[in-house]
Prior knowledge:
By secondary structure, the protein is α/β, with parallel strands linked by helices. The chain is about 30% helix and about 20% strand. Strands 6, 7, 8, 10, 12, 13, 14 and 15 form an 8-stranded mixed beta sheet that branches. A 3-stranded antiparallel beta sheet has the order 2-1-3. The radius of gyration is 20 Å and the shape is globular. This is S8 family serine peptidase. Keywords: Hydrolase, Protease, Serine protease.
Amino acid sequence: MSTEKYIVLRSREVSSPTRGDMGTRGAGMNPFARQPATVRLEEADLTKRERNDLRRDPRTRAIALPMPLKLITPVRRQTADSVTPPPADTTATWGVKAVRAHESRFDGTGVTVAVLDSGIDPHHPAFAGVNLLQQNFTTEDPNDLDGHGTHCAGTIFGQDVNGTRIGIARHIERALIGKVLGEGGGTSATLAKAIQWALHEGAHVISMSVGIDFPGYVDWLVKTEGMHVNPATSMALEEYRANVNLFTELASFVQAFSSFGQGAIIVAASGNESMRPKYEISVAPPAAGTGIIAVGALGESDKGLIVAEFSNNQADIAAPGVGILSAEAGSNKLTSMDGTSMATPHAAGIAALWAQRQLEMTGRVENQSLMAQLVASGTYATLAPNSEEDDVGTGIVQAPLN
C-alpha cells in the first residue's frame, strides 16, 4: 500500500478549549491549554487509512503534507558602494531611527533571538562578539550562501560597521541561527522543526522571513505528478489550509510553553506578492497562522512613511522595509535590500528590546504580554495620512524608551 510523508503534531492528552482563550488570526490567543512536554512533532510515512485515523484522533493537533518553502525574496539588492552613505552627522540607518531604537536605553541584553532563514555569515564584522549557535536543517554548507539570513540577522543584532549603526538590539550576546533554506530549497516540515528547536534552545524572539511556495507546489504537482492544473490547484489549496493550521498550532504550543518556561513570540514576513495599486495579496503562511505576528513593510516619502508597493495586507504591525542597509554575506560591507523580509527583523529587534524590559521588571518573558506590548507599540504618528489598518496593522513598531 502506498504511503506519503506527513508532518504530524500530536499531544498525549486530549486538549479542550479554555474559556476566554479563543481569538482571531494575529490576536495571539491560545485556543488550547496544554503542557508543552506532551506535544510531539514528527514526520511520518502514512497510508491513506493511517492518515484518516490520525485526523479523527482528538490528540492530533495538525497533520499536513510538507509544502515547499522559499525565501521571501528581496525586491532589490545593491552593494554598499552604490548606496548613498548616511549624512556625516548620522550614524544609524533610517530604519533604526524610524523605530526609535537609537533613543532607547534597552539594547537586547539578556535576550536570545532566533533567526530561521538561509543561515548566516559568522565571519562578518557585524557579528563580532555574538555567540552564534548554528543549526543546519539543510544538506548543504551550514553558512549563508544566499545573503538573505545574514542581512536579516544584521538588522536584529548587528554591531556597527564602519561607523554605521545597522542593528536594533546591539548587545544581544546569544543568537540561534537555524538554516532552514538552501539552494536545494526546504519545506514547511523543516521550518516546523526549526521552531521547535529554537524554543527548546531558549529563544525569546523567533524571526522568520520565509514563506510557503504555493505556485511552486502547484507547478510540482503538474510536472511531477502529471496532474491537470485545476485539480492540482485544489489539492494545493487543501494542503495550504492544512499548513496554516499547522503553524497556528505551533504558535499555540509556543504560547503554552510560556507557562512552563521562558516565553517566546514569533514574528514573520507578510510577503511581497502585492503590486500596489493594481492589486493586494493577503498575508502568506507561516505569517498567516493565528498567534504569529505578521509584519508589513514601510518606505519613506515626502508625506511620511507609506506602505511598500509589494507588501501584503492583513499585517499586524509594520516596520521599515525599503532601502534597508545591513550586513552583506561574503564581505565586510553593507548592502541595501527591500522587502517584508527586511521589515521583519526590525520588528524582531524591537521585540527583543521589549523582552529585555520584561526580564528587568519580572525576571522572565511572558508570551501574551510581549505580543501585546509589541503590537501596542505601533503608531501612526509618522505614517502618511490615510494609512489603512489592513496594510500596516497598529502602525510602525516603536522601541521602549524607559
